[in-house]
Amino acid sequence: MKDFLRINSSDNIIISLRELNRGETIVDDYIEIELLDDIKPGHKIAATDIRKGEHVIKYGYPIGQAIKDIKKGQWIHTHNIKTNLSGTLEYKYNPNFTEKRIIDDSKTFMGYKRKNGDVGIRNELWVVPTVGCINGIADMILNRFKENIRTVGIDHIHVYKHNYGCSQLGDDLENTRNILLNIVKHPNAGGVLVLGLGCENNIIEEFEEKLGDYDKDRIKLLKTQAVSNEIEDGVKLLEEIYNVIKNDEREQVPLSKLKVGLKCGGSDGFSGITANPLIGHFSDYLVSYGGTTVLTEVPEMFGAETILMNRAESEEVFSEIVNLINDFKQYFIDHGQPIYENPSPGNKEGGISTLEDKSLGCTQKGGNSKVVDVLKYGDIVKRNGLNLLNSPGNDLVSSTAMGASGCHMVLFSTGRGTPYGCFVPTVKISSNTNLSMNKPHWIDFNAGILLEKKTMDEVLQEFIELIINIANGDYTKNEKNDIKEIAIYKTGVTL
After folding, report:
1. DSSP-assigned letters across all residues of 155-191
2. CA-wise closest residue to 285 among 262, 310, 264, 311
3. What is the pLDDT of residue 385?
4. What mean pLDDT is predicted for residues 51-57?
5. Concatenated DSSP letters for 439-471?
6. Is the pLDDT of residue 103 over 70?
7. Separation CA 39–CA 269 (nearest Å)
8. Per-residue pLDDT tens for 343-398?
9. DSSP string across 256-300
């Protein structure tokens, strides 16, 4: 393996690929540098002298400016650079995208065809409470059901607990209701028991009305205050649902039916070099076959937003991206928080210094496809292709939002590692080999091999095979560990 990597020919920094020591001289065909500091893997090194106030360039774009003179060979991090970001901005549409579309219905996976035309990659039985105060009752119902029936023909049984549904007003109540509605209608669920209390803001009668036309054999609702024995009645309803869904079978469906979320969490200095570009290449691959990908984590677009804006397929979509970015910046401003305060302690430890640094690595998950639509939080995907979704960067909230938008699975890159999984299969992709070796029970795929011996094309083919196998029914590590959670975005007051 090489000592370092220059990502773009215009960069004035390089990335350490191993532990480097002060006094070492590192060389390739184009550069020779004597190191003036000890450098950790994934961290930045000045490839030339950088004067105070000058841009630090990575990925071919500024990631901040030097706050002091930096000598060639010095370590570049939070101690000597700062962000260039400030408030909301005005943007100009400069379209720059290429469209690569392959019409090939021979590319397929084995999915579950639903009555409404949707396709699922799992056939699961879920309990979804409308309000947090009956989470315990939901557990009791599910546990009693499991005692009564040894299930066959389904992939998983789970209660999706949350803390909301009451004492909420306005957008918060709408967010809770919309996310839960979308979970209930998700095609990965063969059937769902919706469990209500009866006095909550998210009242079950209104919830049912907003479900619209639904399959009453597969979705059943129970208001616990309206019955004398909610455990017994709940178990009976679960048994009725189970007897319907246990006979579902997988069928061949075109790859164009697959919807995938694009996520990163616990990023490090390698994320934007290995795992995120790999996800981006997969996104382009899936989109080229008529499939759908969803990119969110809006605060992690700040500093890289113009790249996405210029890939908008129309001025209308461009305007929607501008509103998405500026509205989220205003959200920070309204709450008295700095827009740029994003890289976490783990991000910084892994070599990420500024929000621009993080954002430019993050947005690579979107590949090079044009952006076809911008979704509000709680919206469901309407158009095939690359979509942007309004959601914060928080791992739990953004993953849940992508699943709720209709994604069958979430591709989750990480350089630091996380066991988290949302309510759809959550594929963990490590940015470095050490993480994959240390946490094999968390990690589904090691993108770190891109730094060692394999080309992007070779690794992409292995990754495509993994994703198709997961769509066909192979379990991800979060599924094997039964780590499946939801989290809902909250912005307002609690009564």
Report:
1. S-EEE---S-SSSB-HHHHHHHHHHHHHHHT-TTEEE
2. 262
3. 96
4. 97
5. -TTT-SEEGGGGGTT--HHHHHHHHHHHHHHHH
6. no
7. 12
8. 888 899 999 999 999 999 999 999 999 999 999 999 999 999 999 999 999 999 99
9. GG-EEEEEE-S--TTTTTTHHHHHHHHHHHHHHTT-EEEE--GGG
Contact 302, 359 (CB under 8 A): yes
H runs (alpha helix) in 366-455: 395-404, 433-438
d(CA 262, CA 273): 16
Which single residue is written with the structure tokens 């260039």?
84
Give the least confident one: 238-242, 328-332, 387-391. Answer: 328-332
Instruction: With beta carbons less than 8 A apart as the criterion, state whether 259 and 292 touch.
Output: yes
Q: Say which residue the tokens 């997969």 belong to.
A: 282
Contact by Cβ (8 Å): 365, 295: yes
The three-class DSSP label of residue 313 is coil
Which runs of E-coded beta strand occur in 101-257? 108-113, 119-120, 124-129, 157-159, 189-196, 219-223, 251-254
Please list, in sequence order, all residues whose beta carbon lies within 8 angstroms of the beta carbon of residue 60, skipping any fewer than 6 positions away.
7, 8, 9, 10, 11
Q: Are strands 385-389 and 371-375 parallel, antiparallel or unpaired?
A: parallel
What is the rounded average pLDDT of the residues 112-120? 96
Q: How far apart are CA 264 and CA 358, in angstroms?
A: 10
Q: What is the pTM of this model?
A: 0.95
Q: What is the mean pLDDT of residues 471-494?
A: 95
- 430: number of Cβ within 10 Å: 31
Q: Name, in order, each residue with C-beta under 8 angstroms of 376's C-beta and a sequence gap of 6 or more.
A: 390
Alpha carbon of residue 136 to chain centroid: 28
Alpha carbons 305 and 221: distance in angstroms, whole number? 42
